[in-house]
Specification:
single chain; alpha/beta; 8-stranded mixed beta sheet; 40% helix; globular
Length: 732
């Protein structure tokens, strides 16, 4: 019995059938049977499938007449299936690489669940930026298997059939099949969730769905939209027969009728049957409305009440009014609350404040990175400027004394964003922020790119699915006037990743100035503050985020590393800022510095750096101290995340692939040997071009004070720079 039976109906889209089948047969996990469902033996799809069946014994085609539709084809495939779990794949869909491996691993973790819901991404017909709607539909769920009753919002009716894996025995025992007619996924998904006893979720993209240029066939005009009501009736009738609890029946009812109301309001889908559809939907609404059901608030609630009373004329009038309101709202900026929108719009008509600078770092995490360094230098060189930092509500406590700040989302937040002449950010401001004529936006970035960034991420599904709209990304970077880089490599890569009309400033990263201005006393003080014992070698371990991991994983047994590396070694653990929980995890010889506000301080305190693919290596190289690369999953990272150059060919120091190799690099002293120094020198020559201790000054003079480029202090050559003292010299 194979692990998976993969059913691929081919009616109407034989031209893409090969692409779908290839994505299955290319999977590294091979325990499956592939069941293409063709219209008949002499059809184009049958000719395509015949070649696959000859070449691969796992391909077992079956036939279903076109009159049976999509539901009939899937049911035919289900009857032929022998696998433990059933997967469905439409002809215009493909499995992402590693999909079956991920499904098998998750099912091994959860045990024999009845249904495993997964994420998918929708790719526009022009192969544009994908979206991941399933990620929004899958609520927070327990880590393992759970009863659908525990997650009442997960009804199944909003997910396509190919966004889940189904235990075949469960479907057979419960006599669940695809209902006849259109919108069969709605009926099938609802029946599965109503009947399942155990479910689980895999928060990973498994299927890529190509959105056709003409849209989904279900969205075309025609009387088939009446069948949505039949599917809704089927699911709600079964729910009533089961005596579904109120906390489950409410979300199910609302999600089904959200689709019904959307169809009822659409002017073209129903042609001349809109009134008939509305009246049938009204009767259905009254029949199945749960006892004590509370209608939603706002316009949606009004639509519910009009449907319940059958007030079709008022419903049509409401839609017209909503369209007028929507067109008016589009002309306003987009803060969430209407009152705030109006206030923001009013402030946008007021003159810019020529002395107001707004800063933000890491989406409001506090006073950090390049914006903080620029802010500090501006207080020295341009004291007439008023500076306001933007900060999330839960990060207010991290702001230093004497720094003016505004909480993100507050009235003051929108006020300063509307009036500021200068806006400085190491990431991006919210989409709703308007770029005013005469304002100056500076993007400082927050690292040198090894991994693919910006629009270069589009061809890497794991990353692209989490990036969101690339069109919105381009709109955000179109607001930039200046973009800061620390080396020529960054200049070239940012121009690829963020194509826009801004000016590139090759001034270095202001946050790295301290690597050339810190004194021996500074280094000693920081080591004391971090709790590094006297006479110890402090090794900073700073791994980067993995897009294919769901949480922080060190990748190393750090205590074992300390034991093998040497008696004097302690580890400073700094997880990626995504995993900063504000509390330390220090144990034994491990000092957790993840929550420490300044990565620059941590680097100054360290005798050496161990990292994988984090951009911290480029910053740390300014200190001219040893860097060791721990690359246990380089091949996976390179393929899933994408990189701009081969780090294994051009590392900043020794490369270790296993924990044993890493410990040996320190125990035998090669981490600080001649080969390590030579690799570091070449790395510094390439990536430490513009960091010389005066980057913040250059930025303030050029951007905030408006000095001409020719008056800006030139970059000091690398050979003439003196980095901060190394800890060993400080100890001596």
């Amino acid at each position: 019995m194979p692990r998976f039976s993969i059913i691929v109906p081919s009616h109407g889209v034989a031209g893409r059938l090969s692409q779908a089948l290839d994505s299955v047969l290319a999977q590294s996990f091979g325990d499956f049977e592939l069941i293409p469902v063709c219209d008949g033996p002499d059809t184009p799809s049958a000719d395509v499938v015949a070649g696959y069946a000859e070449r691969d014994s796992r391909v077992a085609p079956v036939h279903s007449p076109p009159t049976a539709g999509l539901s009939g084809a899937r049911n035919t495939g289900m009857r032929a299936a022998t696998g433990t779990y059933l997967l469905f794949l439409d002809c215009d869909d493909t499995f992402v690489p590693g999909a079956l491996t991920a499904l098998d691993a998750r099912l091994t973790e959860t045990g024999d669940v009845d249904v495993l819901y997964v994420e998918h991404e929708r790719v526009p017909w022009w192969e544009g930026e994908p979206t991941n709607p399933a990620a929004l539909l899958l609520p927070r769920t327990p880590a393992g298997a759970f009863s659908p009753a525990e997650v009442p919002q997960l009804t199944g009716v909003q997910l396509p059939a190919w966004s889940a894996a189904y235990r075949r025995a469960f479907l057979a025992e419960q006599y669940i099949a695809f209902p006849d007619g259109h919108f069969t996924d709605v009926g099938f998904g609802g029946l599965v969730t109503l009947t399942a006893e155990k479910a689980a979720v895999l928060r990973q993209v498994v299927v890529r769905h190509l959105v056709r240029r003409q849209g989904n066939r279900l969205g075309l005009p025609g009387e088939h939209h009446l069948e949505l009501l039949a599917q809704t009736d089927l699911v709600l009738t079964r729910a009533a027969e089961q005596g579904l609890s109120d906390d489950r029946s409410g979300p199910l009812f609302e999600q089904l009728f959200a689709a019904v109301l959307k169809t009822a309001a659409h002017p073209r889908r129903l042609s001349g049957r809109r009134r008939a559809f509305f009246r049938l939907a009204s009767r259905l609404y009254r029949r199945h409305r749960p006892d004590g059901h509370r209608t939603p608030s706002g316009s949606l609630g009004l639509q519910h009440r009009l449907l319940a009373t059958g007030a079709y004329t008022a419903f049509r009038a409401l839609r017209g009014a909503n369209q007028l309101a929507a067109r008016a709202a589009e002309r306003l900026p987009r803060p969430r609350m209407v009152r705030t929108r109006l206030r923001y719009a009013r402030n946008l008509r007021r003159p810019l404040d020529p002395n107001l600078v707004v800063y933000c770092a890491y989406w409001g995490r506090g006073y950090a990175c390049n914006p903080a360094a620029i802010h500090a230098k501006a207080r020295e060189l341009a004291p007439h400027l008023r500076s306001v930092f933007l900060v999330e509500p839960d990060q207010e406590h991290t702001m230093p004394d004497g720094i003016e700040y505004a909480v993100i989302g507050s009235t003051e937040y929108w006020d300063v964003l509307a009036r500021a002449k200068y806006l400085v950010n190491n990431a991006n401001f919210a989409d709703a922020v308007v770029k005013r004529p005469g304002s100056v936006h500076l993007s400082t970035q927050h690292g040198t790119p090894l991994k693919k960034m910006g629009v270069d991420q589009a061809t890497y599904p794991v990353v692209a699915s989490a990036t969101g709209s690339f069109a919105k990304l381009l709109a955000r970077i179109d607001r930039w006037d200046y973009n800061l880089t620390s080396n020529r490599h960054s200049t070239e890569m940012w121009e690829r990743a963020f194509p826009a009309a801004h000016e590139t400033l090759e001034y270095g990263y202001p946050r790295n100035d301290v690597y050339y201005t810190a004194t021996a006393d500074d280094v000693a003080r920081i080591r004391r503050e971090l709790g590094i014992p006297e006479g110890r070698t402090a090794v900073l371990y700073a791994p980067t985020h993995r897009d294919y991991h769901t949480g922080f994983e060190t990748g190393l047994d750090l205590e074992a590393f300390c034991q093998q590396a040497g008696e004097d070694v302690v580890v400073l653990l700094r997880a990626h800022y995504f995993y900063d929980q504000g509390s330390a995890r220090s144990t034994g010889r491990i000092i957790d510095v993840t929550a420490h506000r300044s990565s620059e301080d941590v680097c100054l305190a360290a005798d050496a750096l161990i990292t994988d693919y984090s951009s911290i290596m480029f910053d740390y190289a300014n200190l001219d101290r040893p860097v060791v690369v721990y690359a246990d999953d380089w091949d996976v990272y390179r393929e899933t995340r994408g990189v701009y150059f081969d780090l294994m060919e051009h590392p900043p120091g020794p490369v270790a692939r296993t924990p044993e190799e890493l410990a040996r690099v320190f125990s035998d002293g090669s981490w600080a040997g001649a080969e390590s120094a030579a690799a570091r020198a070449a790395f510094r020559e390439r990536f430490c071009q513009f960091d010389d201790g005066r980057a913040a000054e250059r930025v303030v003079r050029r951007v905030l004070l408006g000095e001409p480029p020719e008056s800006i202090p030139p970059v000091i050559p690398l050979a003439e720079r003196t980095p901060a003292p190394v800890p060993a010299l400080v100890r001596n």
